[in-house]
Design brief:
about 600 residues; mainly beta; 22-stranded antiparallel barrel; five-stranded mixed beta sheet; 4 helices; about 5% helix
Length: about 600
């Protein structure tokens, strides 16, 4: 007779019934470990990134929303800029994260302010019980060099994990449209991550996660400009401390965080500091009824020279409650409720309701339908409210009502998932010019974003060969439905830098210790002006990449080699108007890992 084992843990997926939560493919992340997060997300998902050049500012656009409408959480701490309202994905290296999840669609009731288009969840996993150390080295075109060292070890109740990385690039690629070399675009990034875990018992743990990132880059000028001198440095410190206690009464989680973001642009420094504390308790009734209650506090300090008096400060509170219930073994419902409290605002109450129904449920056949509705909001950024001679403290928070309906079917290893989504955003904030030529933020627009998304995946094994194809496609219509009198011409027009059609996919082939893959990204026409003038639009393009690699295993030793070709067909394309992107380029990656015992 074996003793029974009780596993405690209530993952986020339970409270997101009715919507889509995707775990980034681990092999894709491993093969692209030296790339930034934006580069690898666009390989697996139909997401558009507005890149101001290679290695420059990279902002995300999910499901027809703006970059300010996607939240990025690292170990539960929101690391999007509270001054700009968005995250720069070019300085989020994939090598820094153990687990990457993407929640597609509206989720403010679960994840807080700004989660209209989606939420990116970045997490550190517990240190491995097997001590190991690994080293990775990349060398690529245009002076690109990436190095990283990872170590993990455990001693009694302690667990430690350390990551170090450094990336440099001269970034002097040929500009295909002019034939000359790209000037003033070099960049460097380096960082350290330290994870520490102490286990009182199998049910009680204290974990600490610290991340320091240091980036320095020349600001890539527009095509044809050769006298640019702009430079930017980013210094980011993030700290997350979590205590968890599992018991028969549920899971208690106490969290604290600290974020210090410094941007130095041409010698002028701007700093935003945040202190975060939160508490959550999860419990289970009658084995099928899960509930969670929680509260969070954010204290925000902005020291920015362009603000009125050069300083801004505020407190935000969030009170949340979530319920998940399996009505039968085929029907599941989830409810998320959030009441934000923000100084100076009448923040709205935010509900989310989602449900899933399994029509078919067997070993080889699964058919599930799902749907959700929600209300969402976004607090105006610090820049919106405190910018000198422009900011408006009376701005209203953006709010939206969103709905989603979808289906997921699986036959053995083949899976197809589709989603229909729609969202209406009210009081959209836009910086508009006045007669004096200055720009001011105003609640002036209403936007309707709607569309359909389809994903196909398969894992097929034929003798010693495994074939893994994956394809995603999204059609998005994101238009202005209300605008002030002077901007009536924008009504019915697609939002700028929001392609109606996006697609991505790859096919991976594994044979014994060899693997190869071909990936592709497609982005449709993108308008660069609110009137959708064809003459100024960026044309559609399809980008292709390929790689081949091999693994050697010998007792505790593992060696990985991979050679990659990016932009195989040397395509001339732009992700932001007049900002050049590299043509064909190459990368060679080597990784060595030593484990304390044979895996």
């Amino acid at each position: 007779m074996l003793k029974s084992v009780t596993v405690y843990g209530l993952p986020d997926e339970k409270y997101l019934a009715g919507s889509s939560l995707i775990l980034l493919d681990s092999s894709l992340k491993s093969n692209e470990r030296s790339r930034n997060l934006g580069e690898i997300l666009s390989l697996q998902l139909p997401i558009y990134f507005r890149n101001y050049g290679n290695g420059m500012l990279s902002s995300i656009s999910m499901r027809g929303t703006s970059p300010q409408h996607t939240s990025v959480l690292w170990n539960g701490v929101n690391i999007s800029s509270f001054s700009l309202g968005q995250a720069d994905f070019s300085i989020l290296p994939a090598a820094a994260f153990d687990e990457i999840k993407i929640h597609e669609g509206a989720g403010s009731a679960r994840f807080g302010s700004g989660a209209f288009g989606g939420t990116v969840l970045l997490n550190s996993t517990a240190p491995s019980q097997i001590n190991s150390i690994s080293f990775s080295q990349d060398a690529g075109s245009f002076g690109r060099c990436f190095s990283s060292v990872n170590g993990s070890w455990s001693a009694n109740r302690w667990g430690f994990k350390t990551k170090l990385y450094n990336l440099t690039s001269e970034n002097n690629f040929p500009v295909l449209i002019t034939g000359g070399r790209q000037p003033h675009a070099a960049f460097r990034q380096s960082g350290i991550l330290q994870d520490v875990e102490y286990r009182w018992s199998t049910a009680k743990t204290l974990s600490l996660h610290y991340w320091y990132h240091d980036a320095d880059r020349q600001i890539q000028p527009t095509i044809g400009q050769y006298n640019s001198v702009d430079n930017q440095q980013d210094r980011n410190q993030r700290l997350s401390i979590r205590y968890q206690s599992h018991s028969r009464l549920g899971l208690l989680s106490l969290n604290s965080g600290y974020v210090n973001d410094v941007i130095v642009y041409d010698g002028s420094a701007s700093t935003v500091i945040r202190w975060i504390s939160s508490a959550r308790h999860e419990f289970v009734f009658l084995k099928t009824f899960h509930a969670q209650t929680g509260a969070e506090w954010n204290h925000i300090i902005g020291n920015i020279p362009n603000y009125q008096n050069g300083h801004a400060q505020e407190d935000r509170y969030d009170f949340t409650s979530s319920i998940q219930k399996n009505i039968t073994d085929r029907i599941s419902i989830a409810v998320n409720l959030r009441q934000p409290v923000v100084w100076g605002f009448n923040a709205p109450f935010l509900p989310y309701f989602g449900t899933e129904y399994a029509i078919l449920k067997s070993i080889n056949n699964d058919l599930k339908i799902r749907g959700s509705i929600s209300k969402n909001y976004r607090v105006p950024t610090l820049n919106d409210r405190y910018w000198q001679n422009a900011g408006d403290k009376n701005l209203l928070p953006e709010t939206s009502r969103a709905g989603e309906f979808g289906m997921a079917y699986r036959f053995k290893t083949f899976e197809i998932v589709n989603s229909f989504f729609a969202q209406k955003v009210n009081d959209w904030i836009q910086w508009v010019p006045e007669q004096n030529g200055n720009y001011y933020p105003q609640n002036i627009e209403q936007v309707l974003a709607e569309g359909v998304e389809v994903k196909l995946s398969l894992r097929q094994k034929i003798n010693d060969v495994t074939i893994i194809p994956m394809l995603t496609y999204q059609f998005t219509k994101s238009i202005t439905t209300q605008a002030p009198a002077a901007d009536q011409y924008t009504i019915g027009k697609q939002l700028i830098y929001t392609p109606r059609q996006t697609a991505s996919g790859y096919i991976q082939v594994i044979w014994r210790k060899f693997s190869s893959d071909i990936s592709a990204q497609y982005n449709g026409t993108r308008f660069t002006d609110a009137g959708n003038t064809d003459a100024y639009a960026l044309p559609s393009f399809a980008l292709f990449n390929a790689s081949i690699g091999k693994v050697w295993l010998s007792n505790q030793h593992r060696f990985d080699f991979r050679f990659s070709v990016k932009n195989i067909f040397n395509l001339d394309y732009q992700l932001y108007a007049s900002r050049a992107m590299p043509g064909r380029n190459y990368n060679l990656q080597f990784t060595y890992q030593l484990n304390s015992k044979t895996n």
